[in-house]
Amino acid sequence: MRGYFGIGAERISKQMNVGSLFRTAHAFGAGFVFTVAASYAPDEGEVADTSRSTASVPLYDFETVRDLRLPVGCGLIGIEITEDAIELPSFRHPRCAAYVLGQERGSLSPEMVELCDYVVKIPTKFAVNLAIAGAIVMYDRLISTARFAARPLVPGGPREPLPPHVFGEPLWRVKQHAASAARAEKNDREER
Question: Helices marked H in the chain — which ranges?
Answer without folding.
Answer: 15-27, 42-45, 110-115, 130-145, 171-191
